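Quick question, first post here. What does this chain look like in 3D?
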Amino acid sequence: MERTLVIIKPSGVQRGLIGEVTSRFEKRGLKLVALKMARFTKDLCAEHYSHLVSKPFYPIIEASMMSAPVVLMCWEGVDAVSVVRAMTGATDGRKAAPGTVRGDFCLSHQENIIHATDSPENAEKELRRFFRDEDYFEYDSPLLSYIYSIDEL
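> Answer (accepted):
Ran it through. Tokens below.
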């Protein structure tokens, strides 16, 4: 089992896409194990986007991420990081394939609706940034048990 972070960015929240995005991951067979709404601060934004802080476009990212609340989610499943990344689509919404979250809902590189962790190692770091141990919930999921048992054949 693998866990990954998904953030529905302010533009996705403002456009009312929380249910649509969440539904796609559920229908794919991923399990939602943590969920909350929050607001990015300057410090949190600088930490989360530390690899971009020195870029000339960073102030635009910061303003966008602080413009409205975000929805933070932890999804669990087999190869969750790569599955979520594939479902999310290319960072530039104009280049994202139809059928992906970005391909279906955005036409912008900056306002691209969603963040999805890019590696299992970064997933661990990012999840620790936003969730505490008590934020996670374990529960039975008959559909997921079936899917995972087929994978083991």
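The chain has a mean pLDDT of 93.
The first strand starts at residue 2 and ends at 8.
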